[in-house]
Amino acid sequence: xxxxxxxxxxxxxxxxxxxxxxxxxxxxxxxxxxxxxxxxxxxxxxxxxxxxxxxxxxxxxxxxxxxxxxxxxxxxxxxxxxxxxxxxxxxxxxxxxxxxxxxxxxxxxxxxxxxxxxxxxxxxxxxxxxxxxxxxxxxxxxxxxxxxxxxxxxxxxxxxxxxxxxxxxxxxxxxxxxxxxxxxxxxxxxxxxxxxxxxxxxxxxxxxxxxxxxxxxxxxx
Length: 221
Description:
The protein is mainly alpha-helical. The chain has helices at residues 2-16, 28-34, 36-88, 95-162, 186-192, and strands spanning 23-26, 167-170, 183-184. The chain has a three-stranded parallel sheet. Helix 2 crosses helix 3 (36-88) and helix 2 (28-34) packs across helix 4. The radius of gyration is 34 Å and the shape is rod-shaped.
């Protein structure tokens, strides 16, 4: 009877052992925003974004001006059309004069149509250029932060090996929902961060997961 209780207790200890696992967490986002390389990359991206935003504002102002001109032209066309309808009822105006008025109205209509097509084309080009820039900026951001994320993960992985951690997770990643009393390695990783000393990261349960880069030049900090 006693022997059975001992076996049961041993089984419970085995099943519950993960509760006592030594777990570390790493906030890669904070590392990226704290180390000199991350700050430099962020400042560069913010400068590019600011310059582009100024250009976008100018383009939008030009498009708005063209749209206002188009609206004004439409009002003039409407006024000309109303005048022509009134003149059409008049018997004092010659047929030749009426034809000239009609020709002027048709010319105005063609001009408005051309301006409208031009405005739509320029608006499309502006939107396409803006989307292309944002995609390019995102690519630049990933390129700038990926090396930092890999280096930080490698440093945390080495810490985990030397200090006998069972797990090291990236804080905020989908792989970690809850851990009891996790040890935050972030500040230590920031202090030890040396990109020139990076070795290929070792995959395995002791390695931190790959980080998600900063979402934008203005994120966090």
